[in-house]
C-alpha cells in the first residue's frame, strides 16, 4: 500500500501555478525519501493538450545538486509529491530522470509532464 497522499486535482494544476517557482528550491518526496530540487523550466505544451482538457499541458524540469547515491536517484522514474508550494502539495506525479538538457549546466535533471 502506498503512503503517498492525494492532493489537488492534477487536471486543475497549470503552468502558471509553477511559474513563480522558477529557480526556487522545492522538494520531491516519495515514501520516506526527500530530494531538494530547483525548478529550471516550466513550459506549456499546447500540442500535447487533449481536446477536452481543462488546462494546457505543460512540462516541468528540475535540477538537483544532490550527490549520488541518493535513493530517489537510483531509479529512472518514481511516483512522488512536489512540496514546499504555497498551494497544496502536488501529486502523486510520475517524475523521470532525464539527460541534462544542452542549455543547462551540470546537475541531475528530473522531468514531470502534465498532459
Order of helices and strands: HEEEEEE
Rg, alpha carbons: 14 Å
Mean residue pLDDT? 86
- DSSP E strands, number: 6
Main β sheet profile: 6 strands, antiparallel, barrel
Q: Which secondary-structure class do the elements indicate?
A: mainly beta
Shape: globular
- Residues in helices, as a percent range: under 10%
User: How do the strands line up in the largest sheet?
Assistant: 1-2-3-6-5-4
Number of helical elements: 1
The share of residues in extended strands comes to 35-45%
By oligomeric state, this entry counts as: single chain
Low-confidence stretches: 1-6
Distance between the termini: 26 Å
Give structural notes.
4% of the residues lie in helices and 42% in strands. The protein has one helix at residues 15-19, and strands at residues 25-30, 33-44, 58-64, 77-83, 90-98, 108-114. A hairpin with a 2-residue loop joins β1 and β2 (33-44). It has a 6-stranded antiparallel β-barrel. The longest helix has 5 residues, at 15-19. The radius of gyration is 14 Å and the shape is globular. It starts with 14 loop residues before the first helix and ends with a strand. The model is unreliable at 1-6 (pLDDT under 50). It is mainly beta.
